[in-house]
Amino acid sequence: MTIYEKLLECRDEKYSEFQSKLVPNISPKTIIGVRTPDMRAVAKEFFGTDEAKAFLSELPHKYYEENLVHFFLVANIKDFDECVREVERFLPYIDCWPVCDQSSPKVFKKKHDKLLPLVKKWIDSPHVYTARFGMRMLMNEFLDADFKPEYLDWVAEKRGEDYYLKMMVAWYFATALAKQYDATLPVIESRRLEPWTHNKAIQKAVESFRVTDAHKDYLKTLRVRGVAGQN
Q: What global pTM score does this model have?
């Protein structure tokens, strides 16, 4: 059985309709309708098989779920260099936020020294989802013990009109405010982000249970007024 055939076995047409509303920038015809736990199970079942190896070499895929399974397979590769090769081969084909956001290679946590320059390269990419993935890796891997304030600059300087790019910048800074408040606050106070993104970062921080009430109250005073599309 192929991975595609296995995905068809897990199909839920009603879920396909629901999912298409969450990912409006891709064609509903490319969404089979498979829930994430089922896709992870498919990746686990096929990982290391000849079918998986053949599947990873077949790009681009036709279906949204095939892309997710592809990234789930890549995330399980235990060799860092091999994993990076497969990540970089796949990044140009990512076309929506769920594929970008739901896979985190396990081996990255063990190789921060080798990962960091790659993260910087990905963030600098003109491809929206490569840059988004880079920012998410910076957020996931470098906001705790390995944090340095200069990493905030990498994201603060990222510019682009794409909604999903701007949302990732906001998400990063909201998380940075939760984890590295003292280092991050000056970026917000100096309004280095674009106004929409600045306000969205504050909104997400205010909604976070990881930010103290006192910090939330102060962040609210830093909102930029009169920005279109904001609450």
A: 0.94
